[in-house]
Amino acid sequence: MIKKKLVVKNGSYTNKNGEEKTNWLVIGHEHDGEFGTYYTLDAHINLAAIPRKEGDTRVMVNAYDVEPKKSFKGDSDVPF
Predict the structure, then answer these.
(1) What's residue 76's pLDDT?
(2) Alpha carbon 65 to its chain's center
(3) HSE on the CB side for 18, CA within 13 Å?
(4) Bridge partners of 25?
(5) For the stretch 23-49, what's the b/e string if a residue is b when 16 or more beta carbons lie within 10 angstroms of its beta carbon?
(6) Which residue positions in the chain have pLDDT lower than 70?
(7) Residue 56: CB atoms within 10 Å
């Protein structure tokens, strides 16, 4: 079962109100399994390409709770 999503800061942008916001990239997940907690990383992620502080060799990864999926009620007026 997925407990958390693993994300890294991947730049920033300015929204329509002029506020600077952070771009977050999901790179994997924290799972709760039969033998304890384990982590999976997406295969296409190159951690060397993630921005980091000058001279630092580490990448900061944040873990956030997984948001429940919003249910789609559908449109009852579908003509078919």
Answers:
(1) 61
(2) 10
(3) 0
(4) 8
(5) eeeebbbbeeeeeeeeeeeeeebeeee
(6) 72-80
(7) 8
Instruction: Specify the pTM.
Output: 0.72
Buried b (16+ CB within 10 A) or exposed e, 11-20: eeeeeeeeee
Dig out the tokens for 77 from the structure. Answer: 């007026």
Q: Which is it for the CA torsion 22, 53, 51, 44, positive or negative?
A: negative
- State the DSSP string of the chain: -EEEEEEEEEEEEE-TTS-EEEEEEEEEEEEEETTEEEEEE-TT--GGGS---TT------EEEEPPPPPPP---TT---
Residue type, 22: T
For residue 31, give both structure tokens: 């799972």
